[in-house]
Each structure stands twice: as C-alpha cells, then as structure tokens.
Amino acid sequence: MAQTLAYINGEHFYYAFVAGSNEVSRYRDFLNKINVFPVFDSDTGNNLAQTLNYIVDSVQPQKSLGETVRSLANASLSGAVGNSGIILAQFINGLAREIGEVSSLTPEDFGDKVRRAVPYAYKAVARPVEGTMLTVLREWSEALKKAAEETGDIMKMFKNSLDQARVSLQETTDKIKVLKEALVVDAGAQGFVFFLEGVARLVETGNIRSLLRQKAPDLAIEEPWAGVSGEINLRYCSEALLKGEDLDHEELREKLEPSGDSLIIAGTGEKVKIHLHTNKPDEFFFQLRDYGTIIHQKVDDMQRQYQVAHERQNKIALITDSIADIPQETIDRHQIHLIPINLIIEGSTFLDKVSIKPDQIYSILDQVKEYPTSSQPPLKTVEKMLNFLSQYYESIIVVSVSKELSGTWNVFSRAAQPLQKQGKKISIINSRLNSGAQGLLVQKAAQLIEKELEHEEIVEILEEKIKQTSIFVSVATFKYMVRGGRVSPMKGLLGKVLNLKPIVSLDEEGRGTAFARSFSRRGSTKKIVDIIKGIKEKSPVESYCIVHAGAPEKAQSYRDIFSRMLGKEPDYVVEISPIVALSAGLGAVAVAVMTGEEEAAPVVS
After folding, report:
1. From CA 133, how far away is CA 190, in angstroms rounded?
2. Which residues of the chain have pLDDT under 50?
3. In the prediction, which pLDDT does 601 show?
4. Domains (ranges, CATH) in the chain?
5. pLDDT at 13
C-alpha cells in the first residue's frame, strides 16, 4: 500500500492486516503486563497475538477486497480467543458484511464501511463497557471516515485517525475504575492501537518487506497493579465455536447470560464464537449441545493465570493431564496446572473434567448411538501453556498419563522441544500410570516441589516412585468396555453369561492388563484386599486413594475396609475423570497405592 493509491483492494487490505498483526505480536508481553480489566489474568497480549496470527496464517490474499475480507472474517471466528480477540473478530465479520462482493473501495467508501461495521462489535457484547477496545474502535472509525471525506488521501486518512485513536486510548484510564487505580490504559484498546500503528507504518512506507516481525522495545511499567485487588469471582474464561443452522444470537444471549458475565457472541447464523466468564463451564457447554455442534472449546483458568503472574508459590511449575484423578482442592492448594484431554460426543468436542463432569458423562453413555471417544490435547494448547509458564518459572515438570494408553506424552514432548532448545528446563515424565495412581504421583511431585528440592532430584525421586505405585480397578460390567472397543463383543457376552467381574491394572510398561477376575463384586473386593495385603507385607504403604465411577457407596465401603487394614485414612476419595469412565464404566471402583518409607517431617525449631 502506498500514499498515492486512490483505492483499496484485497491485497492492500491483507498486507495492512499483516502489518497490524505483527505490531501486536511485538508488544505481546507489554499487553500482558497491563492487563487488569475485566480480570487480572495477564493474557490479553497472548490472546490478541494468537487471534491475529491465526487469521494471517489461514488466509491467502486475493485481489478482490470482498473475497479477502470475507476470508479473514471466516478465519477470525475459528482463531479468536479472549474478550478482545472475539470483539475484533466480530468487527471483521461486520466489515465483511458491509463490504460485500466489491473488488475495491475508494478511501471515502472504505471509511464509511468501517464506521458501519462498528455496531456489529457492540452488538456482540452482552453488556458493552466504554473505556475498552469498543470505545477506541468507535472513535477511530469516526475519525477515519471524517479524514477520508476531507482528504481522500489514504496516508492522511490513517495518520489523522490514528491520532484520534491514541487520544481515545489515553482516556480509557479515566473511564474504568480499576484502570485508574492501576495507572494503565485498557490492554485490549492498547492492542488495537498497536495494530493501527502497524497499519499506518506500512501505509506511510509502502514497504511490504518491512512486514518481517521485529523485536519489541522494552516499555517500562511502574507498579501497574499497586493497590488494586486481584480477586476473580468468575474463574473460567470459556469459549466455544458452535456450528448450526439459523443460530439465533439473541436466543443464545438470553439463555447464556445468567450463567456468568463478559458474554460475547460473534459470527453468523451458521457459525458463532461464544465467550463467557463463569464458574461452571461444564453447564455452559452442555447448554450449547441443544443448539448445534461444538467444533472447538477453550477454557482458561483465570485464577491460576493470576497466581502464576502475581502469587507463585514455587520456583518449579507442575503440569499434569486430566487423566490424573486428584481432588480439585489439592490442585488448587499446590497450584497444579491441568491440561484436559479431549472427549468427543456425537461430533462435539468437550474438555475432560473442565467442560464436562463425571455425572454428565454417566447420564449420556446409554443414550448416544455412537459411543464417545477421546483424543490427545491439541499441540497448540500445550505449547501455549508451556510458553506462558516458562515466562514465570525457573523450570517445569510434567507428569503425563502412560504413553502406552494415550498420545498425550508425545504431545507434551513435542511442545517442549522448542523451549528446551532455548535452554528452558522442562522434564516430561511418562508416569506409566493413570487415574488415581497418576494422581498419587502428581501429589508426590507437588509435595517435593514445596520442599524446595532441586529439579533433577525431584525427577529422580518420581521415576523411582512410579515403580512403587499401582492401581487395581474392580469393573462392574463389560458393557462399557465392549462399546468402547476395548473388549470384543464375544468376550463381553461370555463375561455377562458367566457374571465375570474383572480386576484391571497396569503392567510395568503402563499398558492395561486384566490382573484377576471373580464371579461377584464381593469376590472382586476380596481379591483386591488380598492384593493390597500382599503389597503391604513387602513394603509399607506411603499413600493411597480410592476412586470410583458413580459408585459413592462402594467407594465408602472400600474406604472403611482399607482404613482398618492400613491403619490410616486414604489421601482422598474422588470420582474418576469422564474419559477414564468411558472404559471403566459406571459402577467401577479402584484402589491406588504408593509404597515406600514416608519421609520424616521437617523439625520445627
């Protein structure tokens, strides 16, 4: 794009978009640092950069302006993350609708289309707040239209409107209380101004080669959060990409608004991106099943993100996947970071333990025609978490489900490689365990980290503890194993006829194995009791837990039995993850044990 151009076509618009995207990426860390509204989750820079980079990487420029903007709009719905990202996506979709099929526009017409697109962004937000990106977007668009009409010159049009955007940005500080207390501007609005500055620079120089990403200069921030409360009342930033027919945005808004706040609905009648802050993401996503197919889900734990940036307990970050069955209280107490496995139900993808809970999976297992399946977490999801944590922690330890049971370990390993090459200390541990046994290992890792042992020493101890940890699962019925494809229909039928009750465990390599069998639940319990007795005779039980699939009474029975036998209460009793429930099936109950001498408590002087 150059200052002598009398029109804007698809290629001009695309390269301007790339220039703006690059500028946001340059200042990503700065945007994270000033992110205090609507919550202190320090990720506005990450979200905006991810949104814009996804759009740029998904689109090839066309000469037609209409085709290019439409392609950018389609990509924006798939790639948008965070409040600001989704607001920007809706603005782009509105612009695509206003531009239509035209191949190019004069500066005057372009300015008019931009101004007409702004109400789409406002309409997407359930409760628009002035002093955010919305305000800067509106005031910039009005200045753009005015400058275009007065000058008809592309360079002056962008320069004049950028001046107004900067003024509007500075005024955000006084429009929102928390921004004024923190002495910062709104992070989303600042990100949009960075975007405009990138566009303006390209317009001024006309140098497409300048689009190579550059390192951002250091920008000092003086105590931006001083005196500002970091309380987060709604913990989970939840987003869904929903595909359907004649999706009614107003109906969705009325249905979802009582579930939380910061509701944003962007898109069309066939595909919408929905953003909501809520404490119950599972209920939010389950409601969406009635409207269409959930193509993609994302849930960020804003409380944990805030803790990472401002209230870290330890120098080593601990990550595990959702197969590890461990109480939420333990996860919160030790600031453990959870990567959910994907659960696919009738074409819709859910996040294990996060956007779907055990009681929900039990209610639909016997209703669906196609049995649910699972898949490893997306590489980009894991990369995003590792990149985020590596900015704040000295090192990272990941405790993964057995790589013989899932491709999750491989995803962790691939995601860590670029950071490891940069010198970041990241250890990916193949637990060779799952469920409660994996949970005990994660708990052990958290305890070792809090004792401030060195990274290498912790990894060495955990590798030894893997050999000392086992799980024994009493399966109530073969039905779910058959439907999930783990047992053939013939064996399932034979098991039903003979009333077989298998006891499932893991071998030394972490593969599932039929450890024993009985002909009744009572017989299964007796066999597991005998197994644990044998383990106890060889080595003291350091810790143990009981996990179950919708069988609290059976779990309580196990608790009574093993508390008497081992002379202590279990570390915890919890329900298994929805994905583990797919194979274990409703009614399953298990005991996981870790042996070895308990470490002496530190002497308090």
Report:
1. 8
2. 1-3, 216, 220-227, 482, 485, 487-499, 519, 600-605
3. 39
4. 8-211 (1.25.40.340), 312-341+376-466 (3.40.50.10440), 469-595 (3.30.1180.10)
5. 92
Percent of the chain with pLDDT over 70: 87
Per-residue pLDDT of 222-243, as tens digits, reads 444 434 555 678 999 999 999 9
Dihedral sign computed on CA atoms, order 239, 243, 249, 253: negative
Instruction: Say if strands 501-506 and 512-518 run parallel, antiparallel, or are unpaired.
Output: antiparallel
Q: Are 93 and 268 in contact (CB under 8 A)?
A: yes
305: exposed, middle or buried (Cβ count in 10 Å: 0-12, 13-18, 19+): buried
Burial of residue 375, with CB atoms counted within 10 A of its CB: 0-12 exposed, 13-18 middle, 19 or more buried: middle
Note the pLDDT of residue 32. Answer: 87
Contacts of residues 224-227 at CB distance under 8 Å and 24 or more positions apart, as own/partner, are 224/33, 224/34, 224/36, 224/182, 224/183, 224/184, 225/36, 225/40, 225/182, 225/310, 226/182, 226/183, 227/181
Neighbours of 582 (CB within 10 A): 23
Place of tokens 């905006």: 48
Question: Which pLDDT does position 491 carry in this prediction?
Answer: 45
Report the distance separating Cα 71 and Cα 195, nearest Å.
19
User: What DSSP letter does each residue of 35-64 carry, written as one string?
Assistant: --SS---S-HHHHHHHHHHHHHHH----SS
Residue 600 amino acid letter: A
Distances, alpha carbon 325 to alpha carbons 28, 321, 386, 436, 574, in Å: 35, 9, 22, 5, 7
pTM of the model: 0.81
pLDDT of residue 497: 36
Structure tokens given for 250? 């107003």
Q: Do 445 and 399 form a contact (C-beta atoms < 8 A)?
A: yes
CA distance 298 to 47: 12
- Tell whether the torsion through CA atoms of 570, 575, 578 and 582 is positive or negative: positive
What is the rounded CA–CA span in Å between residue 558 and residue 544? 12
Task: Please give the span between the terminal C-alpha atoms of the chain, in angstroms, as a whole number.
Answer: 72
Q: What is the pLDDT of residue 135?
A: 96
Measured distance CA(240)–CA(79) in Å, rounded: 11
Phi-psi region of 405 (alpha: psi -120 to 50; beta: other; left: phi over 0): alpha
Residue 281: its H or E element: helix 281-288
